[in-house]
Input
Amino acid sequence: MAVDFAGIVADNQSMVFSIAVRFLRDREGAEELAQDVFLQLYQKLREIESPAHATGWLRRAICHRCIDEARKRKLRPRIGLDAVPEPLAESRNPDLLLNERLRRMVEELPESARMVVLLRYQEDLDPGDIAEMLNMPVSTVKSQLHRSLAVLRGRLEKQEICR
Output
């Protein structure tokens, strides 16, 4: 079965870019990674069985590429655009200060834990899907989520006490 590459790109480009830009916090770097991932997909198009298979493949590929890129950047820091505007969540009374503090705290998590948190709470994936995508046991995903949330809670509480 032949899949429509243009349709796959149209259906998935916002998801791929969103994961990359939220993880890397660098719009240009996210655009480059997204383009590379779509180029990889194009080269492997014969292996893609359906649009759903393509979506899963893209999500997995961008996650791994983001983690690899973050590790490379630790070795060779790159000047990025830290002022990327955060997409506004629909909320009646958003606490913008809290959102900014949380975003910074999530950025400080180790790469693997940060990707797990991002996939769980941005992409709304369940731990089983995340485990499959990142090729790790479900128990590892759950423990990373548990530890990451505990770290974030602790940091938020510490900031509140210091105020």
Summary: The domain at 1-81 is CATH 1.10.1740 (Rna Polymerase Sigma Factor; Chain: A). The chain has a mean pLDDT of 84. Helices lie at 5-24, 27-43, 51-75, 96-107, 111-121, 127-134, 138-162. The radius of gyration is 17 Å.
